[in-house]
Structures are given as C-alpha cells and as structure tokens.
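During the no-cost extension, the postdoctoral fellow (Dr. R.K.) reprocessed legacy sequence entries with the updated structure-token encoder. One reprocessed record is reproduced below for audit purposes.
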Amino acid sequence: MLNPPASPLKFPRLLLTGAGGNLGKELRPRLKSYCDVLRVSHRSELGASAPGEEIMLASLENKAQMMALMKDVDAVVHMGGVSTEQPWNPILASNIVGMVNLYEAARLQGTQRIVFASSNHVTGFYRQDEVVNTKMPPKPDGFYGLSKAFGEDLAELYWARWGIETVSLRIGSSYAEPKDRRMLATWLSFDDLERLVVAALTAPIVGHTIIYGMSDNQTTWWDNTHAKHIGYRPLDSSDVFRSAAEKRQPHIDGNDKAAIYQGGAFVKASPHG
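Re-encoded structure tokens follow.
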C-alpha cells in the first residue's frame, strides 16, 4: 500500500462498487486516504464498516438501489459486475443493465467522475505479436469482453451528451505476482493499480479516456500514448518475476489460441457455462 501525500486531493464522498471482489478488497483500505467518506458497496455482505466508511448493499441491475447508492457521491470507482467469462444472462444483468443504471443514477444525482473497471479483454482477439493503442477498434474475446466494450461506449455517450467524465481502465492481470508468461506482459501490481485509480480520479480533465492498466513491464502489447494526460506512472515491473515464470512455463505451444491471442485463456473459455 502506498503512502499518500500529506495533503492529497480529497473527495467529500467517494463510492467503491464491487468492494467484495478481488480488486475491490485491495482498493477498499487504500482509497480511504483520498476521501472524507468512502462508501463501499457490493451485492452481498461486506462485514463491519471501518472508520470513515459507509456500507450500502446494492445490486447493479436494481435501478432503485443504484439511485440510492449514488446519492451525494462525488466520484465513483466502479469495480462491480461480472469479472470473468460467464453465460450471457448474468453478464447482461450486471455489466449491461447495471452499467446503464449506474450512469443514469450518476446523471440524475449529479456525479461528475467515474473510474470504470473495463478490461484488456475488450481487445483480447488481437495477436500477441501486435501492439495495440487505445484508439484501435475493439476485438472482444467473449461475452465478458463484449460487455466491457459496451461499457466503454456507454461512458462515451454519457460524456458526449451529459458531460459525465470517465476513465475506462482496461485492466490487465492484477495479482500479487504474474502467474504465467502471458502475465509478464499484462501484469499490474496492486500498488500500480492504486496509482492508476488515483491518477484517473484526480487528473484535471479527462472527458472519456481509455487507458490500459499495466505495470512498467519490459514486454507489453499495449500503448498508452493517447492517455498520457492522465498522469499515470507505473513504478513496478513484472521483470523481477520473469525467471520464475519462465521456469514454470518453459515451453509455449504456438498452435494454442491462448498463446496466439492477447486474451489468453479467455479466447477459449466457454460462454455457455
């Protein structure tokens, strides 16, 4: 966890959705430094509230609950929703209907900045021998990636029509360390995740900006040139784990779609359960 500056830019009330998910659990104790009140939300129990926290349970697909959740919120870190390849119906409910509910509630309640956890799987069907920038067309690798592409388009709509600013984070692989050789390119440390979210929250003007969430890895397939105004500067690198990852996976099957395309195993995951 980072040591925030003595006088960080603080929001009166910041909302973290998906606070019970893997990355939500990492961000929950970190984000309190950047707000007076941290409102945390999930669809299921989150335990006791910490000092300076508010807990509000809500389902993304429930319009009334989302309206209540967004009341008096200055900015949102939206980590909620389905985060893996799944059958269509749960993705539709959380990642499509839920996103519309979130943005409509933001519009009606006056929230002006959203940090949206999109995904690298929006472009998962680009090859691993290509470098992709944030202006290139989506190539989603499944229903999950498709839903995140929709979320990015929705963010663009709400910026163009209603002036709600969004930074869409195409998060790579955020774990304690890379699990395989693919993640040497896609890895995002937890500290760099915090740096990315805070940069997205505090950049003066963002409109709708898309940025890939990755650490300062030697190998990468993603180009964030068009997002430099966000001010994100990763300080960690997967390279300290390279030897261990290569020992665990010494051989790459060049005929395996997971080794050919950037989405890895997601390009082969069944969307039908």
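The CA atoms of residues 211 and 227 lie 6 Å apart. The longest helix spans residues 88-109. The remaining legacy entries will be reprocessed before the final report is submitted.
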